[in-house]
Amino acid sequence: MANDSARNTRLAALTRLTSHIGVVLVLAILLLAIVVGSTGLGRGPLRIFVGSGVLAFALRASVPLILGALCGILCERSGIINIGIEGMMLAGAFGAFVVKAFTGHLPLGLSLLLATVGAMVVGAALGYMHALLSIRFRVNQIISGTVIIILATGLTTYLFNPDWFSAGKFGPIAIPLLSRIPVLGQVLFTNGLLTYLALALVVIIQVLLYRSRWGLRTRAIGEHPRAADTVGIRVNRWRYINTVLGGVLAALGGAFLVLEAVGQFREGMTAGRGFISLAAMIFGNWSPVGSLGAALLFGYTQALQNELLLVGITAVPRFFIGMLPYVTTIVVLAGFVGRTRPPAAEGEVYETE
Prior knowledge:
about 350 residues; mainly alpha; ABC transporter involved in vitamin B12 uptake, BtuC; 15 helices; globular
């Protein structure tokens, strides 16, 4: 008994630690970037690793990962496993592209707004589909998520018309005064609307998850649904709501790719970002702030990959450099899966007595 208690204490300590590792590393990189940017070191090789351009690209690369991780948090904190984030993200990107292509004659701001709403509707529909299969029809939640990925990949490939064109996207908005801060101003305060929205959602969901009635109910139905039911919480109803909201967030991640990053849709353009989002969620210990740190680290590896290719590193084959974000994901999963603690009732179908 004493050994089990000591083991649980060590596991709890490790769980708390992993949720802060990403945040600490990101802060360390930002601090190093400020030092490099304010001294002559910024003109040397260090700019490849911590230059303001690299960090700005890292943040942009992190946005879909942040939104995908938030989707996973809402679903899995409620007890619903969601590996279909990749499919929801891809469908959201396609939905945003279709609406943007067909509303291109409208004012740009209105067209972008309608495209964003269109992506959210598509994400909500897929979230509801996943909840329906998982809760009402009791389909294995891993299989349900896989079905959503296959469905989204097949439909977007079949329906995509190369002749459609989406003109215009969200441009960077410089926040007065803050955008003039050396290094940080360019990285954090000169971004598009969806980037600011993603960062704001991290703070909002973090506060709500641990400081609101909704957050208490969400954590309760994911940890001990039977106990939650006995105090009057409608477990499956809240699972439906949170899974639909999660689908909306994942679709926003896809919309970012079309409406702010690339500007157009390409088949399979999510390129595994949904799965990397799951890794960020696990590394962040199912916490919004922890997942933000992990997503930023994964985004940094993508930015570093891009920078190494741009400067013409030839000693290492470019294919190995291109593998960097995915290798990082594998290392993180191999090192932390099994050492973090997921919600206790994750993946369990609940029946009201």
